[in-house]
Design a protein that fits this description.
The protein has helices at 13-18, 27-39, 42-53, 59-80, 95-106, 167-173, 175-181, 197-206, 216-232, 241-252, 255-267, 272-283, 290-295, 303-317, 326-340, 344-380; strands spanning 114-125, 131-147, 150-163, 188-193, 211-214. It is α/β, with parallel strands linked by helices and 393 residues long.
Length: 393
Protein backbone atom coordinates (compact mmCIF):
# COMPACT_ATOMS: atom_id res chain seq x y z
CA UNK A 1 0.00 0.00 0.00
CA UNK A 2 1.36 3.40 -0.95
CA UNK A 3 2.10 5.81 1.90
CA UNK A 4 -0.47 8.54 2.57
CA UNK A 5 0.35 12.10 1.55
CA UNK A 6 1.40 14.44 4.32
CA UNK A 7 -1.37 16.63 5.70
CA UNK A 8 -1.34 20.29 4.64
CA UNK A 9 -3.41 23.42 5.01
CA UNK A 10 -6.25 23.65 2.53
CA UNK A 11 -9.44 25.55 1.73
CA UNK A 12 -12.95 24.33 2.36
CA UNK A 13 -15.61 25.84 0.05
CA UNK A 14 -18.05 25.44 2.93
CA UNK A 15 -16.13 28.12 4.87
CA UNK A 16 -16.93 30.67 2.20
CA UNK A 17 -20.52 29.50 1.85
CA UNK A 18 -21.06 29.93 5.58
CA UNK A 19 -19.22 33.26 5.67
CA UNK A 20 -16.57 32.03 8.09
CA UNK A 21 -13.55 34.24 8.65
CA UNK A 22 -10.16 32.95 9.67
CA UNK A 23 -9.71 31.68 13.20
CA UNK A 24 -11.61 29.40 15.54
CA UNK A 25 -14.46 31.77 16.42
CA UNK A 26 -17.97 31.43 15.07
CA UNK A 27 -19.29 34.40 13.07
CA UNK A 28 -21.33 35.60 16.05
CA UNK A 29 -18.38 35.27 18.45
CA UNK A 30 -16.13 37.06 15.97
CA UNK A 31 -18.55 39.96 15.63
CA UNK A 32 -19.11 40.13 19.38
CA UNK A 33 -15.36 40.29 20.06
CA UNK A 34 -14.66 43.08 17.57
CA UNK A 35 -17.65 45.17 18.59
CA UNK A 36 -16.69 44.88 22.25
CA UNK A 37 -13.18 46.06 21.35
CA UNK A 38 -14.69 49.13 19.71
CA UNK A 39 -16.15 50.18 23.08
CA UNK A 40 -13.44 49.21 25.55
CA UNK A 41 -9.73 48.34 25.82
CA UNK A 42 -8.75 45.03 24.24
CA UNK A 43 -7.96 43.23 27.50
CA UNK A 44 -11.27 44.30 29.01
CA UNK A 45 -13.13 43.19 25.86
CA UNK A 46 -11.55 39.73 26.10
CA UNK A 47 -12.65 39.49 29.73
CA UNK A 48 -16.21 40.57 28.87
CA UNK A 49 -16.41 38.03 26.02
CA UNK A 50 -15.29 35.26 28.35
CA UNK A 51 -17.76 36.25 31.07
CA UNK A 52 -20.71 36.54 28.68
CA UNK A 53 -20.08 33.66 26.26
CA UNK A 54 -17.45 31.50 27.94
CA UNK A 55 -15.18 31.97 24.91
CA UNK A 56 -11.57 32.75 25.73
CA UNK A 57 -9.31 34.66 23.33
CA UNK A 58 -6.01 36.44 23.80
CA UNK A 59 -5.58 40.19 23.82
CA UNK A 60 -3.31 39.89 20.77
CA UNK A 61 -6.07 38.08 18.86
CA UNK A 62 -8.62 40.71 19.82
CA UNK A 63 -6.31 43.50 18.75
CA UNK A 64 -5.46 41.87 15.42
CA UNK A 65 -9.06 41.00 14.51
CA UNK A 66 -10.25 44.51 15.37
CA UNK A 67 -7.65 46.21 13.21
CA UNK A 68 -8.26 43.84 10.28
CA UNK A 69 -12.01 44.40 10.51
CA UNK A 70 -11.54 48.16 10.77
CA UNK A 71 -9.28 48.21 7.74
CA UNK A 72 -11.92 46.31 5.78
CA UNK A 73 -14.69 48.72 6.72
CA UNK A 74 -12.47 51.71 6.02
CA UNK A 75 -11.88 50.33 2.52
CA UNK A 76 -15.61 49.83 1.98
CA UNK A 77 -16.36 53.40 3.03
CA UNK A 78 -13.61 54.78 0.83
CA UNK A 79 -15.25 53.22 -2.21
CA UNK A 80 -18.72 54.29 -1.13
CA UNK A 81 -17.50 57.89 -0.90
CA UNK A 82 -16.20 57.95 -4.47
CA UNK A 83 -17.62 57.15 -7.90
CA UNK A 84 -15.87 54.09 -9.41
CA UNK A 85 -13.90 56.21 -11.89
CA UNK A 86 -12.41 58.24 -9.03
CA UNK A 87 -11.40 55.22 -6.93
CA UNK A 88 -7.80 55.64 -5.87
CA UNK A 89 -5.11 53.00 -5.71
CA UNK A 90 -5.54 52.85 -1.93
CA UNK A 91 -9.19 51.92 -2.17
CA UNK A 92 -10.51 48.42 -2.64
CA UNK A 93 -11.76 47.65 -6.16
CA UNK A 94 -13.57 44.45 -5.26
CA UNK A 95 -16.96 43.74 -6.77
CA UNK A 96 -18.65 43.77 -3.39
CA UNK A 97 -17.45 47.27 -2.54
CA UNK A 98 -18.64 48.68 -5.85
CA UNK A 99 -22.00 47.04 -5.28
CA UNK A 100 -22.07 48.54 -1.81
CA UNK A 101 -21.33 51.96 -3.27
CA UNK A 102 -24.11 51.59 -5.80
CA UNK A 103 -26.62 50.29 -3.28
CA UNK A 104 -25.57 52.96 -0.81
CA UNK A 105 -26.84 55.66 -3.17
CA UNK A 106 -30.26 53.95 -3.27
CA UNK A 107 -30.38 53.48 0.50
CA UNK A 108 -29.74 57.11 1.37
CA UNK A 109 -31.79 58.55 4.19
CA UNK A 110 -34.56 60.93 3.04
CA UNK A 111 -33.37 64.55 3.23
CA UNK A 112 -34.42 66.57 6.25
CA UNK A 113 -35.92 70.06 5.76
CA UNK A 114 -33.14 71.61 7.87
CA UNK A 115 -29.70 70.15 8.53
CA UNK A 116 -26.77 71.46 10.52
CA UNK A 117 -23.21 70.37 9.80
CA UNK A 118 -20.19 71.05 11.95
CA UNK A 119 -16.56 69.92 11.73
CA UNK A 120 -13.68 70.18 14.12
CA UNK A 121 -10.38 68.53 15.07
CA UNK A 122 -9.09 66.90 18.24
CA UNK A 123 -5.71 65.36 18.95
CA UNK A 124 -4.97 61.69 19.55
CA UNK A 125 -1.76 60.42 21.22
CA UNK A 126 0.47 58.33 18.96
CA UNK A 127 3.32 55.98 19.74
CA UNK A 128 6.54 57.85 20.37
CA UNK A 129 5.00 60.86 22.08
CA UNK A 130 3.56 62.36 18.89
CA UNK A 131 0.10 63.89 18.68
CA UNK A 132 -2.00 63.96 15.51
CA UNK A 133 -5.29 65.69 14.69
CA UNK A 134 -8.39 63.60 14.07
CA UNK A 135 -11.00 65.50 12.07
CA UNK A 136 -14.66 64.82 12.81
CA UNK A 137 -17.88 65.78 11.03
CA UNK A 138 -21.24 65.90 12.81
CA UNK A 139 -24.56 66.12 10.95
CA UNK A 140 -27.91 66.69 12.66
CA UNK A 141 -31.52 67.62 11.99
CA UNK A 142 -32.53 71.07 13.26
CA UNK A 143 -35.90 71.25 15.01
CA UNK A 144 -37.80 73.78 17.10
CA UNK A 145 -39.02 72.25 20.37
CA UNK A 146 -41.47 73.84 22.79
CA UNK A 147 -40.26 73.89 26.39
CA UNK A 148 -41.54 75.42 29.63
CA UNK A 149 -39.37 78.49 29.00
CA UNK A 150 -40.33 78.87 25.34
CA UNK A 151 -39.33 77.54 21.94
CA UNK A 152 -35.82 76.05 21.83
CA UNK A 153 -33.60 75.07 18.91
CA UNK A 154 -32.46 71.46 19.09
CA UNK A 155 -30.21 69.37 16.86
CA UNK A 156 -31.29 65.73 16.79
CA UNK A 157 -30.52 62.50 14.92
CA UNK A 158 -26.82 63.29 14.91
CA UNK A 159 -24.37 61.13 12.97
CA UNK A 160 -20.59 61.29 12.66
CA UNK A 161 -17.59 60.69 10.42
CA UNK A 162 -13.99 60.79 11.65
CA UNK A 163 -10.58 60.28 10.08
CA UNK A 164 -6.92 60.98 10.81
CA UNK A 165 -5.91 62.60 7.52
CA UNK A 166 -5.33 65.94 5.83
CA UNK A 167 -8.18 68.39 5.30
CA UNK A 168 -8.64 67.77 1.57
CA UNK A 169 -8.73 63.99 1.90
CA UNK A 170 -11.10 64.28 4.85
CA UNK A 171 -13.47 66.34 2.74
CA UNK A 172 -13.47 63.71 -0.01
CA UNK A 173 -13.92 60.76 2.35
CA UNK A 174 -16.71 62.47 4.33
CA UNK A 175 -18.90 62.24 1.21
CA UNK A 176 -19.90 58.77 2.41
CA UNK A 177 -21.80 60.35 5.31
CA UNK A 178 -22.97 63.62 3.73
CA UNK A 179 -24.47 61.67 0.82
CA UNK A 180 -26.18 59.20 3.14
CA UNK A 181 -27.68 62.01 5.23
CA UNK A 182 -28.78 63.96 2.17
CA UNK A 183 -26.79 67.14 2.81
CA UNK A 184 -26.88 68.01 -0.89
CA UNK A 185 -30.64 67.41 -1.06
CA UNK A 186 -31.75 69.08 2.17
CA UNK A 187 -33.96 72.15 1.82
CA UNK A 188 -31.70 74.30 4.00
CA UNK A 189 -28.32 73.69 5.62
CA UNK A 190 -26.27 75.67 8.10
CA UNK A 191 -22.59 75.16 8.97
CA UNK A 192 -21.78 76.10 12.57
CA UNK A 193 -18.05 75.95 13.26
CA UNK A 194 -15.01 78.04 13.98
CA UNK A 195 -13.45 80.21 11.30
CA UNK A 196 -10.58 77.95 10.15
CA UNK A 197 -9.92 78.11 6.42
CA UNK A 198 -10.05 74.33 5.95
CA UNK A 199 -13.56 74.30 7.38
CA UNK A 200 -14.71 76.85 4.82
CA UNK A 201 -13.25 74.67 2.05
CA UNK A 202 -15.11 71.70 3.53
CA UNK A 203 -18.42 73.57 3.31
CA UNK A 204 -17.58 74.68 -0.25
CA UNK A 205 -17.25 71.02 -1.23
CA UNK A 206 -20.36 69.60 0.42
CA UNK A 207 -22.89 72.46 0.42
CA UNK A 208 -21.57 75.77 -0.96
CA UNK A 209 -24.84 77.60 -0.28
CA UNK A 210 -24.96 76.60 3.40
CA UNK A 211 -25.55 79.40 5.88
CA UNK A 212 -22.17 79.85 7.60
CA UNK A 213 -22.29 80.65 11.29
CA UNK A 214 -19.26 81.38 13.45
CA UNK A 215 -19.60 79.31 16.60
CA UNK A 216 -20.71 81.77 19.29
CA UNK A 217 -18.37 80.48 22.05
CA UNK A 218 -15.50 80.74 19.57
CA UNK A 219 -16.36 84.38 18.86
CA UNK A 220 -16.63 84.97 22.61
CA UNK A 221 -13.06 83.71 23.10
CA UNK A 222 -11.73 86.37 20.71
CA UNK A 223 -13.73 89.13 22.35
CA UNK A 224 -12.47 88.04 25.76
CA UNK A 225 -8.86 87.95 24.52
CA UNK A 226 -9.16 91.53 23.25
CA UNK A 227 -10.60 92.71 26.56
CA UNK A 228 -7.87 90.99 28.57
CA UNK A 229 -5.15 92.50 26.37
CA UNK A 230 -6.67 95.97 26.76
CA UNK A 231 -6.75 95.60 30.55
CA UNK A 232 -3.12 94.49 30.61
CA UNK A 233 -2.24 97.53 28.50
CA UNK A 234 -3.78 99.86 31.11
CA UNK A 235 -7.40 100.35 30.07
CA UNK A 236 -9.94 100.04 32.86
CA UNK A 237 -12.98 98.06 31.75
CA UNK A 238 -16.09 97.36 33.86
CA UNK A 239 -16.23 93.97 35.54
CA UNK A 240 -19.28 93.14 33.42
CA UNK A 241 -17.66 94.31 30.17
CA UNK A 242 -17.38 90.85 28.58
CA UNK A 243 -20.87 89.78 29.66
CA UNK A 244 -22.39 93.00 28.32
CA UNK A 245 -20.52 92.78 25.00
CA UNK A 246 -21.54 89.16 24.41
CA UNK A 247 -25.18 89.89 25.30
CA UNK A 248 -25.19 92.72 22.78
CA UNK A 249 -23.51 90.51 20.16
CA UNK A 250 -26.06 87.75 20.66
CA UNK A 251 -29.15 89.97 20.59
CA UNK A 252 -28.12 92.98 18.48
CA UNK A 253 -25.43 91.69 16.17
CA UNK A 254 -21.75 92.59 15.71
CA UNK A 255 -21.98 96.24 14.62
CA UNK A 256 -21.79 97.95 18.02
CA UNK A 257 -19.35 95.38 19.37
CA UNK A 258 -16.92 95.93 16.51
CA UNK A 259 -17.07 99.68 17.05
CA UNK A 260 -15.99 99.23 20.68
CA UNK A 261 -13.24 96.79 19.76
CA UNK A 262 -11.89 99.17 17.12
CA UNK A 263 -11.77 101.91 19.75
CA UNK A 264 -9.62 99.65 21.93
CA UNK A 265 -7.31 98.99 18.98
CA UNK A 266 -6.99 102.74 18.34
CA UNK A 267 -6.17 103.30 22.00
CA UNK A 268 -3.49 100.58 22.01
CA UNK A 269 -2.04 100.39 18.48
CA UNK A 270 1.14 98.83 19.87
CA UNK A 271 -0.65 95.74 21.23
CA UNK A 272 -0.47 93.08 18.53
CA UNK A 273 -2.93 90.76 20.25
CA UNK A 274 -5.73 93.30 19.96
CA UNK A 275 -5.01 93.97 16.29
CA UNK A 276 -4.74 90.26 15.40
CA UNK A 277 -7.86 89.16 17.26
CA UNK A 278 -9.88 92.08 15.91
CA UNK A 279 -8.78 91.32 12.34
CA UNK A 280 -10.03 87.75 12.80
CA UNK A 281 -13.42 88.92 14.05
CA UNK A 282 -13.81 91.63 11.39
CA UNK A 283 -13.13 89.11 8.63
CA UNK A 284 -16.03 87.00 9.91
CA UNK A 285 -18.57 89.72 10.56
CA UNK A 286 -20.98 88.19 8.04
CA UNK A 287 -20.93 84.94 10.05
CA UNK A 288 -21.85 86.67 13.32
CA UNK A 289 -25.42 87.79 12.59
CA UNK A 290 -26.72 85.91 15.62
CA UNK A 291 -30.09 87.67 16.04
CA UNK A 292 -31.03 86.69 12.49
CA UNK A 293 -29.85 83.09 12.98
CA UNK A 294 -31.91 82.68 16.13
CA UNK A 295 -34.95 84.25 14.51
CA UNK A 296 -34.69 81.74 11.66
CA UNK A 297 -34.38 78.82 14.07
CA UNK A 298 -30.73 77.93 13.62
CA UNK A 299 -28.25 76.86 16.31
CA UNK A 300 -25.40 79.29 17.01
CA UNK A 301 -23.08 76.90 18.83
CA UNK A 302 -21.10 73.91 17.58
CA UNK A 303 -21.71 71.78 20.65
CA UNK A 304 -22.67 68.72 18.61
CA UNK A 305 -19.21 68.36 17.04
CA UNK A 306 -17.47 69.09 20.33
CA UNK A 307 -19.51 66.28 21.85
CA UNK A 308 -18.62 64.15 18.82
CA UNK A 309 -14.92 64.57 19.53
CA UNK A 310 -15.50 63.14 22.99
CA UNK A 311 -17.95 60.43 22.00
CA UNK A 312 -16.32 59.11 18.83
CA UNK A 313 -12.61 59.58 19.37
CA UNK A 314 -11.69 60.49 22.93
CA UNK A 315 -13.92 57.94 24.66
CA UNK A 316 -11.96 55.07 23.08
CA UNK A 317 -8.64 56.45 21.85
CA UNK A 318 -7.63 58.74 24.72
CA UNK A 319 -7.84 56.42 27.69
CA UNK A 320 -5.19 56.44 30.44
CA UNK A 321 -1.81 55.41 29.05
CA UNK A 322 -3.09 54.82 25.51
CA UNK A 323 -0.79 55.50 22.55
CA UNK A 324 -1.75 54.41 19.05
CA UNK A 325 0.28 53.44 16.01
CA UNK A 326 -0.79 55.77 13.21
CA UNK A 327 -1.99 52.95 10.86
CA UNK A 328 -4.35 51.70 13.58
CA UNK A 329 -6.22 54.96 14.21
CA UNK A 330 -8.45 55.09 11.13
CA UNK A 331 -9.54 51.42 11.32
CA UNK A 332 -10.70 52.04 14.88
CA UNK A 333 -12.37 55.33 13.90
CA UNK A 334 -14.24 53.61 11.07
CA UNK A 335 -15.68 51.07 13.50
CA UNK A 336 -16.33 53.71 16.17
CA UNK A 337 -18.38 55.92 13.86
CA UNK A 338 -20.40 52.92 12.69
CA UNK A 339 -21.31 52.12 16.29
CA UNK A 340 -21.98 55.74 17.25
CA UNK A 341 -24.23 56.05 14.19
CA UNK A 342 -26.19 52.94 15.28
CA UNK A 343 -25.03 51.11 12.15
CA UNK A 344 -22.84 48.44 13.73
CA UNK A 345 -24.66 45.36 12.34
CA UNK A 346 -24.82 46.85 8.85
CA UNK A 347 -21.12 47.74 8.95
CA UNK A 348 -20.27 44.20 10.06
CA UNK A 349 -22.09 42.70 7.06
CA UNK A 350 -20.21 45.02 4.70
CA UNK A 351 -16.77 44.45 6.16
CA UNK A 352 -17.28 40.67 6.38
CA UNK A 353 -18.27 40.46 2.73
CA UNK A 354 -15.23 42.55 1.85
CA UNK A 355 -12.87 40.30 3.81
CA UNK A 356 -14.35 37.14 2.27
CA UNK A 357 -13.99 38.59 -1.19
CA UNK A 358 -10.38 39.58 -0.54
CA UNK A 359 -9.65 36.06 0.72
CA UNK A 360 -11.22 34.55 -2.39
CA UNK A 361 -9.16 36.85 -4.61
CA UNK A 362 -5.99 35.81 -2.79
CA UNK A 363 -6.86 32.14 -3.18
CA UNK A 364 -7.45 32.56 -6.93
CA UNK A 365 -4.14 34.40 -7.29
CA UNK A 366 -2.30 31.58 -5.54
CA UNK A 367 -4.00 29.03 -7.79
CA UNK A 368 -2.82 30.93 -10.84
CA UNK A 369 0.72 31.03 -9.50
CA UNK A 370 0.72 27.28 -8.80
CA UNK A 371 -0.69 26.56 -12.27
CA UNK A 372 1.99 28.70 -13.88
CA UNK A 373 4.68 26.93 -11.85
CA UNK A 374 3.38 23.50 -12.91
CA UNK A 375 3.36 24.61 -16.53
CA UNK A 376 6.97 25.77 -16.32
CA UNK A 377 7.97 22.49 -14.66
CA UNK A 378 6.24 20.35 -17.30
CA UNK A 379 7.90 22.26 -20.11
CA UNK A 380 11.29 21.82 -18.53
CA UNK A 381 10.84 18.02 -18.35
CA UNK A 382 9.54 17.53 -21.93
CA UNK A 383 11.69 15.24 -24.15
CA UNK A 384 14.29 17.20 -26.08
CA UNK A 385 14.19 20.17 -23.72
CA UNK A 386 17.53 20.67 -22.01
CA UNK A 387 17.44 21.92 -18.46
CA UNK A 388 19.13 25.23 -17.80
CA UNK A 389 22.70 24.95 -16.55
CA UNK A 390 24.36 27.09 -13.90
CA UNK A 391 26.75 29.79 -15.03
CA UNK A 392 29.62 28.32 -13.01
CA UNK A 393 30.75 24.80 -12.23
Amino acid sequence: MAPAHAAALGFSPLDEELGLLSGSLTPHQHESLVRLCVYMPFARACQMLREITGVQVSEATARRQTYVSGEAYEAVQTVQAQPPKRTTARACRCQHCHKAAASGSKAQDPPAPKLAISSDGAYVPLVGGEWAEVKTLAIGEVELVETETGVKVQTNTISYFSRLTDAQTFGDLALVETQRRGVERATRVCAVQDGADWLQAFVDLHRPDALRILDFPHAAEYVNAIGQAAREAGTELPATWLKDQLHRLKHQGPTALLADLRALRAKHPEVEVIADKLAYVEKREAQMQYPMYQQQGWPIGSGMVESANKQVMQARLKGPGMHWARPHVNPMLALRTAECNDRGPEAWLDLTAHRLHQRAQLRLERQKQRAAERQRTSRATEPGVLPSLPDTF
